[in-house]
Write a structure and sequence with these properties.
single chain, alpha+beta, four-stranded mixed beta sheet
Length: about 140
């Protein structure tokens, strides 16, 4: 659980240090811009922008009941962030599994990707798809899919 927060916290600390240095040099505008940029990077790399993660077993159980895809992801993954942002509100309808928090989820991803923890891996009807197009994932949520 703590591992997911390491990168965002490091980004915030680094941004604060750089901003402080700019303030000491008399550049408050540059300091503010740096701090905002580091806050943005920390935000998109935090687990907060993703819907609440559940365990792989629970996600697979729910998916079997409602037919919704399961997304295996990890914080800091730019492809996961791209998928999450491009899905918009639709993302809440998927079952999300953070592989850094759930060893069973990491095992599912390794089994689907030749031993690699390549994410996002989306499982639809029991079949894994590695880094699928967000529009395709959205289509899997439609009633006609």
């Amino acid at each position: 659980m703590m591992r997911a927060w390491i990168l965002p916290v490091l980004l915030l600390l680094s941004g604060s240090a750089l901003a402080t240095g700019q303030i000491i040099k008399g550049n408050p505008g540059t300091a503010a811009a740096l701090l905002l940029a580091f806050l943005a990077f920390a935000g998109v790399n935090s687990p907060l922008i993703f819907p609440r993660s559940i365990g792989a077993r629970e996600a697979q159980r729910r998916s079997a009941v409602d037919g919704r895809p399961v997304v295996f992801w990890r914080p800091g993954c730019k492809y996961c962030i791209r998928l999450r942002i491009r899905l918009g509100r639709s993302a809440r309808r998927l079952h999300w599994v953070d592989i850094w928090r759930d060893p069973a989820g990491a095992a599912v991803v390794r089994a689907a990707n030749d031993g690699n923890e390549t994410v996002p891996t989306v499982v639809v009807a029991g079949r894994p798809y590695t880094n699928p197009d967000p529009e395709w994932v959205r289509e899997q949520l439609s009633p006609s899919a």
